[in-house]
Amino acid sequence: MTGFITDERYLAHDTGIGHPERPERLRAIWEELQRRSLWNRLQHASPRMATEEEIALVHSPDYISFIQRHIPRHGIVWLDPDTALCPSSYSVACLAVGGVLTAIDAIMEGQWRNAFCAIRPPGHHAERDRAMGFCLFNNAATAARYAQVRYGVTRVLILDWDVHHGNGTQHIFEEDPTVFYISLHQYPLYPGTGRAEERGRGAGEGFTLNIPLPPGSSDEAYRSAFHKIAPAISAFQPGLIVLSAGFDAHRDDPLASQQLTAESFRWMCRETLRWAEQFARGRLVAVLEGGYALSALAESVAVCIEEMLAWAAPISQTTPSS
User: Fold this and answer.
1) CB hemisphere CA count around 19 (13 angstroms)
2) Sequence-distant (≥ 6) Cβ neighbours of residue 232 within 8 angstroms
3) Residue 84's beta-bridge partner residues?
4) Does residue 322 fall inside a structural domain?
5) Does residue 319 belong to any structural domain of this protein?
6) Is residue 252 part of a domain?
7) Catalytic residues
8) Cα–Cα distance between 322 and 280 in angstroms, integer?
9) Dihedral of CA 41/45/47/50: which sign?
10) Whole-model pTM?
């Protein structure tokens, strides 16, 4: 079964008029899933609120307190030129993290085979002590560490195909050999990190793999990148895959210059599902990151969910290994 996590409460994070990371992103996804008759084929669950202790798996307590203190009573405050806080932002950000943890629980306890989390705000730019790039808490990073702490998963792959490099996820795990972070992203582009030479540090050296792609890259370049990362994934043997699923490499997206189509994302999702099946007993959690052209975003998410449904075969009754 394929799980789906979303909630109308995610719409309450107000980023202001004209901001690309807006509530309409989720509405567009919901409408497209219903139009394609996918909505009722998914297993729906309500997200829970992540606790401070769970968020502190990857963020410092001082940083969590910083976000709490800066929540306004009215209106919007800006942490940087891109990243906004409104009165509901802290609770919505906790719900975003909690939504992904809800999916992890359902997958690790054998209820779902894979899941898509249509949540906001996104997370992969959030570092241990810093919000940036529309992101407050790092949803994918927290999910990876939670799976390790709660379920004993020894090796987690975070695959990030958002068009922007996930500097936050890299920062959190760059010294950790148990979480393999792989990013395919346009370079140069915000946030300016993600060079191929960035491979991790200390014990984590070699467990960060960046594939910077030039502006204007098409389906062929991304397929080549997927073939390049396959041996590294095979060598790592992940017990769980967390997908930072950004769709802003689509050719219609206003914030980047890549040339992918929805069918490109279908192919990448299918290959990721193959790896999940081969190494992780199908266990894949996809977490929405970017994607700001509404129709392109909705179509791309929908085709990925079509692939996830196709791969969600009945779950074995045997105990999954880590």
Assistant:
1) 19
2) 180, 182, 209
3) 78
4) no
5) no
6) yes
7) 125
8) 8
9) negative
10) 0.96
In CATH, what number is assigned to the domain containing residue 279?
A: 3.40.800.20
Which H/E stretch holds residue 126? none
The token pair at 14 is 């107000």
Are residues 206 and 122 in contact, defined by beta-carbon separation less than 8 angstroms? Answer: no
Q: Residue 114's closest CA among 232, 25, 229, 240?
A: 240
Contacting residues for 74 by C-beta, under 8 A, at least 6 apart: 87
Q: Between helices 294-311 and 24-35, what is the axis angle to 10°? A: 50
Inter-residue contact 122 to 137 (CB < 8 Å)? no
206-245 in b/e burial notation, b at 16+ Cβ within 10 A? ebbbbbbbeeebebebbeebbeebeeebeebebbbbbbbb
Does the bond joining 231 to the residue before it have cis omega, within 30 degrees of 0?
no
Residue at token pair 């970017």: 290
| Assigned domain for 48 exists | yes
Compute, in degrees rounded to 10, the torsion defined by CA atoms 215, 219, 224, 227. Answer: 130
The domain in which residue 223 lies consists of 2-311
Q: What is the rounded distance in angstroms from the CA atom of residue 130 to the CA atom of residue 63?
A: 7
Q: At how many degrees (to 10) do helices 262-280 and 294-311 cross?
A: 30
Residues 6+ apart with CB under 8 A from 37: none
Q: How many domains does the chain have?
A: 1
Helix (H) or strand (E) holding 169: helix 167-173
User: Residue 262: which of 303, 320, 206 has the closest Cα?
Assistant: 303
* Token couple for 116: 């898509």
Give dist(CA 127, CA 290) in Å, integer.
17
Mean pLDDT by 10 residues, the chain (322 residues): 98 97 98 98 98 98 98 98 98 98 98 98 98 98 98 98 98 98 98 98 98 98 98 98 98 98 98 98 98 98 98 53 41
Distances in Å between the Cα of 74 and the Cα atoms of 19, 63, 86, 92, 319 are 18, 22, 7, 16, 49
C-alpha closest to that of 137 among 124, 146, 153: 124
- Whether the CA torsion 117, 123, 124, 129 is positive or negative: it is negative
Structure tokens at 170: 């890299």
